[in-house]
Design a protein that fits this description.
Length: 365
């Protein structure tokens, strides 16, 4: 079978190419899935391209190559010389099964766990998500990373005692899911986007607070939204630049507007920003206009899931299955084969990670 693999070479090159590998055979309790649809998420791009300079992409037989700068090569030291299968999640048809899972043959299912930019994948049956009757592989392709991340934000909010959320890059597929979840669950949500068109998009699906970070009065709008919602928790997909600090500053201003008093140390209410993406890889910069009760850290889906109570993962997966074509519907702008995914112009498209430009890989045509 054919599978996309990413390799960093000792001489400082990224090789992203198709490889011929043996088809997996399902063991006891396992299923073999014919992968029919697999999304390219921002989290996939980190493995696909590593620390390569993607402005220097060139075509090679079966794929592409790009230079890896010396600093990037040092950061990639642990994976040099390893041909790494790519693709975090996907969906398709169960075509074979090991002992105990034979009854699942013919069902559509979604999986997570890597190597989904390949024609087949074997996984434990209990780790797959069986799709509802009539659902397509395309509908199920993105039912792990984005839906569980959005639901994980809400679980984090509840576990840490917050009552509202601020979310950046909010016009993404994930952001649209979060809008629908928060509307259904009665959670105040402040959405930050980067253009008037994205404001209109989220308003169109029912979002209440949608702020354009490019607007001249953005900070005033952000303070007003934090004041109205009481938001003290944010999830930031941007990472670099000043936005995380601006959110903390707006939260503090909103708290102080309600406090009715002054403290030179700022409010005692904890304001938390989690960075969960890297759309901007420049340094994260911020002033200190938000007192001393604040925190900024990273948020990663599955390590965070392990911190929730027993049964949470199964409960969230069940909700995703129930709302697959409504709350958790994903939208794709491009559909590409394995060969097309590695064409330099297509690589430039999915590497850009632009809102509204979502690529779906069709490994079996």
């Amino acid at each position: 079978m054919r599978q996309i693999q990413s390799t960093i070479t000792e001489d400082g090159k990224l090789i992203l190419a198709l490889a011929d590998v043996p088809e997996p055979a399902p063991g006891p309790g396992e299923i073999k899935l014919r992968i029919e649809a697999a999304p390219i998420n921002p989290s996939d791009i980190g493995l696909l391209t590593g620390a390569a300079d993607m402005t220097g992409v060139s075509a090679i037989p079966g794929g592409i190559s790009a230079p890896v700068p010396p600093a990037g090569l040092r950061a990639m030291a642990a994976r040099i010389g390893q041909a790494m299968p790519c693709g975090n999640e996907g969906a398709g048809t169960i075509v074979a099964a090991g002992a105990g899972a034979e009854h699942l043959v013919g069902r559509k299912a979604a999986i997570i766990g890597g190597a989904t930019y390949g024609q087949f994948r074997a996984v434990k049956a209990d780790e797959a998500l069986l799709l509802p009757e009539g659902a397509t592989a395309e509908q199920g392709a993105s039912c792990f990373v984005n839906p569980l991340t959005a639901l994980g934000f809400v679980e984090t909010m509840r576990a840490e005692g917050h009552s509202a959320i601020v979310h950046t890059a909010a016009a993404s597929n994930l952001g649209q899911m979060l809008v629908k979840i928060c509307a259904a669950d009665g959670i105040p949500l402040v959405n930050i986007v980067r253009s008037p068109e994205q404001v209109a998009l989220l308003k169109g699906i029912g979002a209440t607070h949608v702020l354009d970070s490019s607007a001249p009065d953005f900070m005033a709008q952000l303070i007003a939204a934090c004041t109205e919602t009481g938001a003290t928790l944010a999830f930031d997909a941007i990472g670099g630049g000043p936005l995380a600090g601006q959110i903390l500053t707006a939260m503090e201003a909103a708290i102080n507007a309600r406090a009715g008093g002054y403290s030179r140390y700022g409010s005692e209410v904890l304001k938390q920003v989690y960075i969960y993406g890297g759309l901007d890889m420049s340094p994260t910069t911020f002033g200190r206009g938000f007192g001393m009760a604040w925190a900024m850290g990273g948020w990663l889906l599955f390590p965070r899931m392990r911190t929730f109570g027993p049964g949470t993962y199964a409960r969230l997966k069940s909700r995703v299955a129930d709302e697959l074509t409504t709350t958790f519907a994903s939208h794709y702008s491009h559909r590409v084969s394995l060969d097309e995914m590695l064409k330099p112009d297509v690589v430039a498209g999915w590497y850009r990670r632009a809102t509204g430009q979502k690529y779906l890989v069709l490994p079996n045509g």
